[in-house]
Amino acid sequence: MTALLEIEGLAVEIPVAAGTLHAVRDVSLTLERGETLCLVGESGSGKSLTALSAMGLLPRRAIRRARRLALLGEDLATASERRMSELRGNRMAMVFQEPMTALNPAYTIGNQMVETLARHRSLSARAARERAAELLDHVGIPAAGSRLDQYPHQLSGGLRQRVMIAMMLLCEPDLLIADEPTTALDVTLQAQILALLVRLQRELGLGLLLITHDLGVVARVARRVAVMYAGEIVETGTVDAVFARPQHPYTRGLLACVPVPGKIAPGAPLGTIPGIVPSLIGETAGCAFRDRCPQAIEACARRHPATIELGAGHGARCLLLETATA
Question: CA–CA separation, 221 vs 111, rounded Å?
Answer without folding.
Answer: 32
